[in-house]
């Protein structure tokens, strides 16, 4: 890796990120797996049995184990990932959070449309087992995506992917991004800060500071009052609008482009709340879809 004089490192890393950083598509693996793990703890027994049947034969036949499958297609099945890449988000450029399906999700090609379509496939017991298995794996992932605020955005920067960040952090980046990490400064974007660094700061191992890991972090979140909200489960479009409104209501866009741990610490409670809400809503969605046998 090319080294830069220390004083120039932040600028050089940021420029490198501008030129080469790939678009982000999800919570990190940790975030998605926590959604799956927490949801699996709160579905009913009938749903648990259905999940076990559908995921039989998977390397890790749990909701946590398949939670990153939709992102893993990027490497395992690039053609399918390309065909489904628009299913991970919904964006609008009009400055409001009034998403319009015809304008912002043509032909159902957005996360709201994908959740609705995959839920229909999952609940249709006339569908082939493989189609229903894939639908379950997509749903676990996309419900998580919808609760990452940058995945339902009204800014003109592709959900924060084009908002460049120079992040001072001791948390090493994921493998694909290591070339943008120089002298403790990560050249990245706001979307990736939300995907990986906010939760990873306490969940992932750092030098001299072991992280909580999946089980430990899920236990911590599950120990909080459950469910994480009251009232009936709303529809997917409401989840997207909720994420969008949080972006501006909580001022998730920083002043400037240099961040450190203070930003991560300040926004972690919101990120953890979104993980918990995603898990609860996913559990209820799966109970409603799988919890009773077909008539």
From TrEMBL:
Record-given protein name: S1/P1 nuclease
4Fe-4S among keywords: no
Highest taxon listed in the record's lineage: Bacteria
Alphabetized SUPFAM superfamilies for the sequence: Phospholipase C/P1 nuclease
Entries under InterPro entries matching the protein: PLipase_C/P1_nuclease_dom_sf, S1/P1nuclease
Presence of keyword Translocase: no
Signal peptide region: 1-26
